[in-house]
Amino acid sequence: MWIRGVMTGSGKICLLTGASHGLGLALAQELVARGYQVLGTGRRPHAELPADFPDCAYLPVDLTQADAAPRIAAWCARQVAGPLPLAILNAGAGRYRPLSDETAAEMAEVLQINFDANVQLAQALHPKLQGGTLGLIGSVAHKGAAGMPVYAASKGALDGFGRALAEEWRGTVRVRVLHPGPVATGMSERAGRPRDMIDSLFLSPRAVAMTLLDRLNSTRGPDRQVVSFAQVGGHMLWRKLAGGAGR
Amino acid sequence: MNVLLTGAASGLGAALLRACIARGDSVCVIDIDARPPNLPDTVTWLQHDLSDTDPALWDRIADAIAQQDPFDLTVLCAGISATGPFETISAHAHQQVSRINLHAPMRLCLILQQRGALAQGGRLVFVASLSCFTGYPGAASYGASKDGLAAFARSLRRPMRRAGVAVQLLCPGPMDTPHATRYAPKGARADRRIAPQTVAQMVLDAPRARFVLVPGAGAKLAALLGRLAPAMMTRIMGRVLFAKLKDQPR
Ligand SMILES: NC(=O)c1ccc[n+]([C@@H]2O[C@H](COP(=O)([O-])OP(=O)(O)OC[C@H]3O[C@@H](n4cnc5c(N)ncnc54)[C@H](OP(=O)(O)O)[C@@H]3O)[C@@H](O)[C@H]2O)c1
C-alpha cells in the first residue's frame, strides 16, 4: 500500500492542537476513524465542544499563555507512557485585514499562536517525539499575502522554522510543514473576509484532513509541501480510484 | 534626508549610521545601547529594548517617532541570533530572537504607518538574511524570524507602494560584524565575509524598484541556487554549517 502507517509498534497515537474546530476538528474525526488515540487541545472549554467532536481526550489550554507548551507536554506525558509517534500542530488564528487596521496586542497574539507557541511546543515535545513525526500546519499565505500581512508573517516564520528543524532532526524526528490552501472552516469569515462567490470554491475540511494525514504518514515527499486545490483534488481522485484506500 | 535606523550601535546599523552622517542626513536611531559619545546633533538617539513587551515603553517610542519629520529611509537592522541544535537552546533565547527579529520590526511598522511617519517617495527596508533562500539549520528560530519578516515585507509591498513607500528586503550573507563572529562556527573564515560598509552603501544606493537586495556575488549565487533547488541548499547548509555547530562545545 502506498499509504503507510506511521506506527512503529508504539500504537496509533496523535497529539493534535486546535482540535476543537475547523480543520483540526476534521483531522480529529479522521484520525479517530482511522483508529488513532487522539489527544486533542483547543482554547474553548469542554462544554463548548461541537456536537460532532469525536470520542477522544481533550485539554483546553490557551496557547497565548506562557505555560501552555509545558502544560500540553506534561498532559501528553501523563496520557502516553511511551514515545509519541505523531504530533500535529494545527491551532491557528488570523485576521483578514490591512496593517493599518491591526493593533499591537492582536498582532503579537497571532504571532504567538501561529509561530512562537509551535516553537515552544516542538521544544517541549522533542524528547517524546523521538522516532515519530511532527506536522506543522502552515498556509499558502506563508509566501506573503497583501490582505493579511500579520498572518502571512506568522506562517512564513513557521515555514522557515520547519525548514530548519526538518534538517536538524532528520533521522530522529520527521518534520513536515504542510501548507493548506483555503479551507471552508469559517476561519476566513471570522477573520473578516467578506463572504462571496469564492467561498463556494474553498476546499472541504474533510478532504484536506485526509490529504494532510496521508502526506504526514508517507515517508516520501519533501519537508515542506503545499496542500491546496491541485494536491487535494488529485489525492481525493486517487483515493476514489484506489477504492477508498488507507482506512 | 531623514533616516530611521534600528540597531545602529554595531554592525550593519553602525555602518549605515556612519554613511548617513557623512552625507549629511538627519538620523533617528532606536537601539538598546546608550547614545555613544561624539555623535553630531543631527542624530536623535532613542534608547529602547526592542524585546520589551511593555506597552507603555512602546507608546513612548511611538510618541518620539511622531515628533520627527517623516522618514525618507527606514532600515530595520536590529537583530540577534541563537545558534546550535534547536532543542539545546533555551526557550527564553528562542523567544528573544522572535521578539527582537520579528515582533519588534512588525510593531515598528505598525507605529510608523499609523503615525504617518513614512514619507511619500521613501523606502522601508527590512533586514532579513540570505537564509531566506537557503534555510538555516543550526539557527532554527533565527531563520524562522527572517522568513517571517520576508513574508511580512512581501505582503506590505503592494499596499505600501500605493502609499508611495517602496518596501525592500535586504538578504545579506555572512557579514564581517560582531554578530557574525558571535554566531559563526569556530574556525569560520572572516575574510570571506562581506564588509558591513559595502552592504550599507548598497542599501543607500539601491534603486527603489528592486524588492530583494542581495549584496555580493557569493551571496547572489547562493540565493540563485536556493531559488532553483531549495531543498538541496538546506541539506548543504545542514552538512556544512549545522554539523559544525552541533559538534562544538558551547
Ligand atoms: N481555513 C483556511 O482557509 C486555512 C487555510 C490555510 C491554513 N489554515 C490553517 O489551518 C489551521 C486550522 O485552521 P482552521 O481554518 O481550522 O481555523 P479555525 O476553524 O478557526 O480553528 C482554529 C483552531 O485553533 C484553535 N485556537 C485558536 N486560537 C487558539 C489559542 N489562543 N489557544 C488555543 N487554541 C487556539 C481553535 O480553538 P477554539 O476554537 O477552541 O478557540 C480552533 O480549534 C490553522 O493553523 C490555520 O492557520 C487554514
UniProtKB/TrEMBL annotation, chain A:
SMART domains: PKS_KR. GO terms for molecular function: oxidoreductase activity. GO terms for cellular component: membrane. Pfam families: adh_short. InterPro entries: KR_dom (IPR057326), NAD(P)-bd_dom_sf (IPR036291), SDR_fam (IPR002347). Keywords: Oxidoreductase. Gene3D superfamilies: NAD(P)-binding Rossmann-like Domain. Residues 12-197 form the Ketoreductase domain. Belongs to the short-chain dehydrogenases/reductases (SDR) family. This is 3-oxoacyl-[acyl-carrier protein] reductase. It comes from Roseinatronobacter thiooxidans. The lineage of its organism: Bacteria, Pseudomonadati, Pseudomonadota, Alphaproteobacteria, Rhodobacterales.
UniProtKB/TrEMBL annotation, chain B:
The keyword Isomerase does not apply. GO terms for molecular function: oxidoreductase activity. InterPro entries: NAD(P)-bd_dom_sf, Sc_DH/Rdtase_CS, SDR_fam. Coiled coil: none annotated. It holds the Pfam family adh_short. Belongs to the short-chain dehydrogenases/reductases (SDR) family. The keyword Calcium does not apply. GO terms for cellular component: membrane. This is Short-subunit dehydrogenase. Keywords: Oxidoreductase. It comes from Roseinatronobacter thiooxidans.
